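Protocol step 4 of 6: structure prediction from sequence.
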Amino acid sequence: MGACPMEEAEIGEVGVDKAGDRALEKGREEGMRAPWLRWLALSTALFAVIAAIASLQSGRLANEALLRMNEATLKQSQASDSWSYYQAKGIKMIARQVEADLLMNSHGPADLIAKTRDEASRYKSEQEEIQREARRLQQEQKELQEKSTEQLEHHHLFAYAVTLLQVAIGLSAVAAIVERRQVWVFALLAGASGVALFVFAILKLRH
């Protein structure tokens, strides 16, 4: 069987971390001979720190979204139960109203007719209360679902930022190994995109 998505993500992150470590070591070793490698090491370290923060945010938001979705499912179940109870009360109310009409048409005892009508009114009142509760539960379910969807969107932004930063770290490692500044430029572009997306995700999360 294949590795689950979480395991694959962890394996990928470990590989990128090792590549980043190699880039840092290479930058320190060759910094005197090729000064730009020192800047490569510095940018790699910066990308790694931001990637770690973005990864934590992504995981936290994913967990919170899952929790909200579970709560929304529970609220939906409770709302469904309330509507079933509402219908049961409605059936009892109609039955008492029909019973009261039959008693009145057959000139039944006045006290029995009054009692039957009172029961019908009670069922109607209870039905209205149940209806309000069901609608409240549905509203809470809707709000939880919307919050879960919003958190998932934020999670995706941080996840994309992590991916771009991991690409930048990987390219930096390649640039350090082959000592090609052009490769580092591509790493900087990917890293800058990842940082920009990370900042955008933070700002969006605060609004």
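Step 5 (inspection) to follow. The chain is about 90% helix and 0% strand.
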